[in-house]
Amino acid sequence: MRSKVAGLILAGAIALCGEETKLDPRTSIQINFPPDSPVLQLSTNVDESRATPRGGAVVVDLHMSLSLRNAGSRNIRGVTLLVTAQEVTPGGKASVAVPSLDVAPGQSFPVRIDLRLLRPLQAGGGPLVRVSLDGVLFDGFDFYGPNRLNSRRAMTVWEMEAQRDRQHFKSVLAAAGPEGLRREMLDSLARQADRPRIDVRVSRGGRAVSSVGSPEHMARFAFLKLPDSPVEAVDGWAGVAANEARTPTIQVVNRSSKPVDYVEIGWLVKDPQGHEFLAGSVPAAEGDLFLPPGRTGRVLQDTALRFSRNAGEPVSIASMTGFVSQVEFADGKVWVPNRLALQLSGLLRVVAPSPEEQRLAEIYRTKGLNAVVEELRKP
Amino acid sequence: MTTHPSGAVLALFAGGELGSVLRWRVERHVAACSECRREVSEFSELRAAVPVIMEPPEISWTKLAAEMKANIRLGLEAGECVNGGRSVRHGVFSVRALAVCGSLALLLVAFLLERPTPRVEPVEVSEPAFLESSVSGIQVKSGDQSIILLNTRARDARDVNYLASGNAMRARYVDTETGYVTINNVYAQ
Amino acid sequence: MSELLPPPPAAAERQNQFVSDNLRRIFLQIYRIVGNIADAQDLTQEAFIKALQRQDQLKDEQKAAHWLSRIATNTAIDFLRRHGRMAYCEVDIHTESEQHSPEELLLQSEHRDYLEDGLRLLTARERAALVLRDVEGCSAEEVARRLDCSKATVRSHIANARIKLRRYMARRKR
To answer: Which of the following CATH numbers is that of domain C9-87: 3.90.79.10, 3.20.20.70, 1.10.3720.10, 1.10.1740.10?
Structure first.
């Protein structure tokens, strides 16, 4: 009751004032880190944040700069924060992750959260946004945190990709010198610029609404086999109608000698003109997959995806290709494709670069080749 | 009983949910009617099958239980309760804005205190939540509410990489100010 | 902000014991309603947090367990009503060398898939009523208490659920 009153006072204030107002971080944001967290919050700045009335709603622009410190005894490689706004989009949540870190004990580092909330004026009281720690990845792949978002696996994958790609660029530097590295950086930037883009809208279950009148047919996946993949995708299909695909289902077999409890399948679509896009990925539902060696399982997703580009132009689906993009074993170890496999299969030009490659390419673009060489010299 | 019992009656008969008088009558009918007997048998088979279907697949219970216990403890400590314990926030706005709206607020409070508190029903959201990528960021939207994680720190829209994965949408870019890669995710539950 | 004060050690110990004693039961109960481990995990956590907010209700152990079950059922039903269908992941285990009972043979691959699809046709309350009655073995009275409705409504939910499943299976057989 009291929070309802507070919410209505807020609503009335916004309606009457009709102007943009600053947010008070002490009351609008709640930040919860566990008492034994190896990451400490040093400061929070929300000076640029505003709440603006718009019709019967409030638009809250939150620009938060957190300064965090490594209070542990090992280097931090990645951090993931859980961001929730329960009074907005009940059940809706978000996360902000920063991989490819190298933060020594005692050092501080920034994390920025920029979000926009659209909420009705009559929404209840309580903090607008809650931020908590989902996970921290350390050197050696050790992890701390509640892991509600499976950030341990995600950050482990990014760290493995980072090590893979750093090793690749180091090898290029060793074999072909700085000029060879420069060519490689330019290739990376060119791939990033030329990579075909697609906009995707995802809804849970059922049709994604738009393609009324287009008959749906079951379309089969083709699969790219990556040589050392511990899991093989052997069959798959999805309901396809014009620019929508629904409920992808993929059968996988564990070809390794260890049990597997998670598989993610990368999903490419090709339009009738032959342009190929990364549509997304099909992850196994959490906790639902367990494949002993040699066993078969299914990965499926009860979602509908709608594809478009250039601000709404539908992208029809002519064919679909899948590839195993990551595997987690029951012992917690993770597999990702190696660089050569990505290159030979042609995936390198379609999928996004790893976060580490993206970071190194940005260093090249803003600070030049010597800065990249310095960066690669770090362990 | 000369007419056949309805499907609902047979379904309840198969589960033993009928009262004694009706059950006795249906029993007599089913004994003499092969069609109804077959229907009851099908209902019984489904009843036997449902518990098997509803068992979870093999899971590592120890790991799952440990995670749940930790999260329950965290949830209690952080005050992330769903019912009750909602805190009242004061002064979301600047003092000046509140001063201007003060008299209206008092009127609103008086009006509310006079009304009986209605029972709050869960909100039925008519349109399911969806996820979307756009030039400015990624959003999860449900009805007239949304959360958007913005790409404002990216150098250029073309430098943002998006990925739809399960019930999540991801955007990845290099923060021009910090030089770190930022990966935003929004989830639809 | 009003904060929950950390409970004194004895109370914390009682809370932990309460969770340990009921965790698996509640998890299974919720899983059978929502059909998905990830959601069942989240909702189980939510149900315990809700229950443990009301320490006064936990004094009588048996009543507390009943009350927790009710919170769990309602939490799962509310979730289903808000969020509709869920994804399943399945594992096909080929065990030709093992002996199967007639029920297990009946439930091989395709038939099992159809039944799972059929379960998705049920409303949240029909599914919950079916789970409580046919899986948990609750009496109609107990189901009515858990779902906070009349016995007549419970019978209606159960009958509708069984009829929908039977019709769906009959259509798939054609």
So the answer is: 1.10.1740.10
